[in-house]
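Thread title: Can someone regenerate the structure for this chain?

I was given the following input by a collaborator and told the matching structure tokens would be attached. They weren't. Posting the sequence so someone can regenerate them.
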Amino acid sequence: MKFSQIPGQKGAIEKLLRSVRQGRVSHAQLFTGPEGCGSLALALAFAQYISCENKTPDDSCGTCKSCIKYEKFIHPDQHFVFPVIRDKKNAEPVSDYYIEHWREFVKKSPYFTLNKWLYSIEAGNAQGLIFASEASEIIKKLSLKTFESDFKIMIIWLPEKMHQATANKLLKLIEEPPEKTLFLLVSDEQDKILPTIRSRCQTVKIPAFSKQEIEEYLRKHCESCANRISDISHVANGNIIRAIELCENADSYQINLDLFKNLMRFAWKRDIISIITWSEEIAATGREAQKNFVSFALRLLRENLMLSLDQAKNGLIFLTGEEADFSNKFHPFINQKNIFNLTDELNLAYSHVEANGNAKIIFLDLALKVTRLIR
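Best answer:
Regenerated them for you:
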């Protein structure tokens, strides 16, 4: 991937380019920022630039032997580590078991969430982790000499999902790696990374995209949502992953909005029969759909609280037209007295869904608690 393919992040890109020009590339770097900031895309472009045989001052050439292999993610000196799942076939799984699928998945787009990756490998209810067995693979790969490039580059996506045993085994290696070895860690939640790992990395902070940058990307890559680009980019609030999902999943977006409306209406009316039916309806969907709904509900609660606090004048409201129509009447019921309890209950439901709890019980319990809190 080339830097020019990233719609924005000029400040972060210039900082990376300057480190190469000055010969001050840190051996371990942590690319981190809010979800959807393009941190993985930046790490991929940076790795390609470092190994490019005909790099310019501003970007990799994209045509040399090294760049062609990097574009296909098959360069022998580029290595990947990412969360995988433990199943009946693989009691001690490592990333290489899924590397072919990973290459095809990332080729489609470098902007995705952990949930989308796990869904693509049919993880079901299994949790994605970087297991202890991965540490031995990393040590083995990096003990070898480079094949074609000057540097061996290890990209670790979501190191916060690293098992503590894995992290402990890698501490020494990250602190004092073999010669010509680079670690590029890509994280959405750096606070969850083991502090001893985090302290050994130079942090590259990446901001959210601007509304204009997301609009530019959608115009080039999402023709199906051409008439909704402005609306989507506003609601995305700097998160390019959310913008892509809103563009590609218009049906699921409408389903989530309808579920949220119905939950709040039934809760206000204290219509227990309808609440039970509602909980059974959402329980019949998949685990990922349930988690997506909870995330959607958390976002709408936040926006309605901002409306209640009269923050529209400060440009802090991120709602689509249909969301705004509903929220104009609904927002008085969301305030500082109930917002914390409501968000706590939704976060609890999310964690219970992740833990493979009984969905009917989880969402019935959630709906009954919302009924008590909404008045």
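The first strand starts at residue 28 and ends at 32.
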